[in-house]
Structure formats: C-alpha cells, structure tokens
Task: inverse folding
C-alpha cells in the first residue's frame, strides 16, 4: 500500500496559479492527479508514466496544467496556471495498481491521498 499526502491547495482568483505536491511513501509505474467538485464524479486531470516521463492530460486542463515528478524525493507535482472557477475541486493524488493500464481512468488507481482543496474565485 502506497501512502500519499497532498499539499499546496488554497484559494486564488481566476487567472492565478497554484502548485500541488504529493509526497509518496512508495512509487508506482503510473501516478496521477484527479479532482472532484461537489456533486460531480471524480475525474482524471493528468497522469505520468514514472519510468518514461510520458504524460497525458484531460482536455479541460491541457495547456494550463503540468504534471511532473521528482523520483529521488518520491514527490509528484501539479503546476496549475490560468486557473478558472470551474477548476474548483478537491484534488487527489493517486498511484496506479501494478497491472493496470496507465490512463486517466479511476479503475487504474488503487491508492489515494486524502485530497487538497483548490478554490478559484471569479
């Protein structure tokens, strides 16, 4: 079981930036960021194949968000720029199960952090 602890959330105005961090007790081949707004399903935001560094983003954040990693520190990051009110959500770090395909599907991930809140005001 991988323990994940997110940090870096907060409140910003539209157009602002935040950087989320996720400290992991272990590292899997695929790590990702998800978010869940009130009354909505949890959705994938970005994922990274930790070996190759290959990344993939949801269309809604492409060009604004960047996922990155520091493998030596076992830390995952999500740089969020040009934030909009619709980005308001609880953001979760996740580690994929060993045999899963590295995608933005929730079913690929079986380790979750407690979440960090991001609130964007207009």
Result:
């Amino acid at each position: 079981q991988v323990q994940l602890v997110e940090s870096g959330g907060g409140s910003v105005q539209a157009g602002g930036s935040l950087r989320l961090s996720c400290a992991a007790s272990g590292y899997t081949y695929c790590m990702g960021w998800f978010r869940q707004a009130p009354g909505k399903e949890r959705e994938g935001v970005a994922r990274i194949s930790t070996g190759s560094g290959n990344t993939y983003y949801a269309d809604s954040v492409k060009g604004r968000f960047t996922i990155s990693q520091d493998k030596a520190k076992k830390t995952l990051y999500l740089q969020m720029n040009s934030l909009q009110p619709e980005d308001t959500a609880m953001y979760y770090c996740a580690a994929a199960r060993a045999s899963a395909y590295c995608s933005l599907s929730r079913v690929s991930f079986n380790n979750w952090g407690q979440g960090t809140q991001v609130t964007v005001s207009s």
